[in-house]
Amino acid sequence: MQRLIYKVCRAAEWQRATSAETYVGSDDDIRDGFIHFSTAEQLTGTLARHFKGQTDLVLISFDPAALGAKLKWEPSRGGQLFPHLYEPLRTAAALSVEPLPVGRDGLHILRKDL
Fold this sequence. Notes:
The structure is a single chain. It is built from 3 helices and 9 strands, in the order βαβαββαβββββ. The two termini are 13 Å apart. By secondary structure, the chain is of the alpha+beta class.
């Protein structure tokens, strides 16, 4: 089975992108020049560092092979390789879109099977 990668964004942002069939990224993605993704192993750290306490977020899964040659694996936090997409994202490539509930501690609750 192919390992999936994940994008976290606001639900309304993803809904607008789906209507347009293309996601150009969050303000942070646009500032950095690429769309940020995380692996399953990186999600907890990404959520705690960049999204703690934020409600109305969705977790979107993708097969990295479907994103093409503009997907690059680059060192980031602690030298880990993170997936970065250097072009707009076709929303049709999404495999699933799930809400990200927030616990009382402000941390997001991920499915156990990620």
